[in-house]
Every structure is written in structure tokens, then in C-alpha cells.
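User: two proteins, same treatment. go.

Assistant:
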Amino acid sequence: MSRILDQRILLLVISFSASVQSTKVLSEWKKCGDPECEKAISRVQATTDYLGPDCRYLNFKTGEEIMVYSKLSRENENLWTGSKGKDFGYFPRDAVKVEEVFIGEEVEVLTKETDFLCLHEDKYVFE
């Protein structure tokens, strides 16, 4: 009986640590095309295949086009946020090249906790 309880506690700890990792704040600040981060900043093209480490990241293949909506700033400037079709997420800026710039002057705003949750089929996934 004690062994089963130990296994359940271990599974609970593993589940909790995975949940904390998937909601980890990647940056306190981001740059957007407008204060609400609703306007696309630019259109980029993937220069390499990319498979992100978790559901918050956008996966793509070389040559695919991505619309960029925000760029993390200050402590983590390498990650941008964008969409490809219905998929949305973070990706490294060095995996793409800028094809077209829509907004020349970006606005820096604070990130929100919801910026770092997984979005699947128009709904947030809470792990």
C-alpha cells in the first residue's frame, strides 16, 4: 500500500513540474506593432526546419511563411511569436528571414501570464 502511495506522489510531482515548466515566463517584456499586440509586425520565411521543445512553440519546415505578432525583449530577445495557418507560438528569430515589414516602429509592453500558455484549436490548454 505504501509503495502505491509513493508512486502516486512521484507521478504528482512529475506532473506538477511539467506544468510549471510549460507556463514558465520566457520574458517580462515584448515588442509589438500596437499596444494590444493584434497587428502583424512582419511576414517571415523559415530558413530551417524547427521543432519546438513544448506546445508553446511554433513548429515549421524550411520555406513556410509565418506572420510575426510580437518579439520578446530584454532578457530573451531571440524568441518571436507568430502564426502559420491556425498554429501559433514562439520560434527563434535566427530560424527565419524577414520577407516583408508591416510596422516600422514597435511598442514595448509587459507580457501577461496568458502569453505563455499553450493554445490548441482556439482554446487554452492548462496542464
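Protein 2:
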Amino acid sequence: VCLTCCSRDVMVKINHICHKSSVKFFAGDVFGYHGYMFADLGEHEFVEEKTKVPKASPGVEDGPDTKKARVDPSETTMVKKRLVFCPLKEALAVDWSGEKAAAALKRTAPDYFLLQ
């Protein structure tokens, strides 16, 4: 479900229904130079492709005679990952006065508070 130009109450209500039903939810809007996007993908599993990193042999010292393992960029491994997204109501209910929020506050764009 994708929403735009909706009130906060409508977005929270529709997201709640989508989250209960395991339906992916996206919401966003733009106000001149400012905008936002929110995604609730519920429990989302995906596969990430990683380049293989050679492991150093134990007991081998660095030196001019030591051969270094070469990394073949075409050699990759697939890593399965899982993310759990929070509902919109939970994301909007963050308590910014706590100690834990102080670190997150530094990483949060000022636009977040402008859109609130």
C-alpha cells in the first residue's frame, strides 16, 4: 500500500491495518524543498551479496617473501538477512527526552521535527 497527501491519523490507521495483515506499507509527501518517506515492510527477509574476504593463515608473518592472498572480485557469497520494521505509530511516539534518544538525535535530520 502506498499513501501520499494523507493526514497523520489516516496514515497511522491504514498502517495499523497493513501491519496486522503483513502487507507492506509506504507513505510519503513533499512540501516544497522538504519531504518524508516511511516504509513498514513488517518482517522483511532479503539476500545480500558479499565479496569473499581471504582469511590470514595463522603463524604466517608479514615480510617481503610473504605472498599475500589475492581477492577475486567475482568470488562472492550470499548472506541471508532479516529486518523487522516498526509501525508508523511506534515511530512517531519516540520519547526524545531520554538518554538513549540523545545519540539518535544527532543522527536525525532537522526536517523530521519540521514535518512533525
